[in-house]
Amino acid sequence: xxxxxxxxxxxxxxxxxxxxxxxxxxxxxxxxxxxxxxxxxxxxxxxxxxxxxxxxxxxxxxxxxxxxxxxxxxxxxxxxxxxxxxxxxxxxxxxxxxxxxxxxxxxxxxxxxxxxxxxxxxxxxxxxxxxxxxxxxxxxxxxxxxxxxxxxxxxxxxxxxxxxxxxxxxxxxxxxxxxxxxxxxxxxxxxxxxxxxxxxxxxxxxxxxxxxxxxxxxxxxxxxxxxxxxxxxxxxxxxxxxxxxxxxxxxxxxxxxxxxxxxxxxxxxxxxxxxxxxxxxxxxxxxxxxxxxxxxxxxxxxxxxxxxxxxxxxxx
Length: 316
Prior knowledge:
Elements: E1 4-15, E2 18-29, E3 33-37, H1 44-51, E4 59-64, E5 67-68, H2 73-77, E6 80-83, H3 95-105, H4 110-123, H5 139-151, E7 157-161, H6 169-184, E8 188-192, H7 196-202, E9 205-210, E10 213-218, H8 220-227, E11 230-235, H9 239-253, E12 258-260, E13 263-268, H10 272-283, E14 290-295, H11 298-306
Parallel strand pairs: 3-8, 3-9, 6-7, 7-8
Antiparallel strand pairs: 1-2, 1-4, 4-5, 9-10, 11-13, 11-14, 12-13
């Protein structure tokens, strides 16, 4: 048997004149967490919808556990779980009824899906609300129930599209713990996320998608190494002086910084860059209010590769 749980070659999807995916290749090893990152509209959700048989690709090939998503959609659907960006639970049923319904639809025996529903309600902090109709739930509670529903049949491959959006920190940590437990028993998880920390802490491998193409695919630590060992952040007194400082650094040191309001960011492989920058700004009476030096993060890699900060992907 192949060691790949998900295999994608040359995947393309067009919507009229719009190309949402343009020759995507992915290989997701079994029993791992694979992170799919990209700016809004990059194509992450379109890829998930194809892999879960909701959409048909325009061209290319995709397999889940060796089964073609186009030729064998029913088989693929029996092997996967999906929690999409928006809660898909029935608001007219209780939380417990929703989970039990999933158990019946996936043909689990009653002796299995009834205790499984109770277990998941407890794990996601919904036990006290389990017998209330979902229409009375908050948005975060619905999101937790939706993720729980994807876990009812204990699928070997789990797709999580922005799984922790709308969750409070405690619920997010609980879901991270559950994902690690699932991988520990051999489940393969493919997740898209707007939280770079999430991908950094969970994913063994990350693919960055931009404009429908994979522009990077590697282990998070190796992606961070490409950018440099340290990131320098300069907090200027105001946006005007930040803009002037950015121009000076770019012109004199050929190091155009990334600017966000009054904060400038530069990457460096040694400490000399910081000394050069501070000396130059001191000469121009542009002294920073605060200076921070830290290791590069996956967020820095994401910004360097795409030119965008990470955002929720609500479009193709």
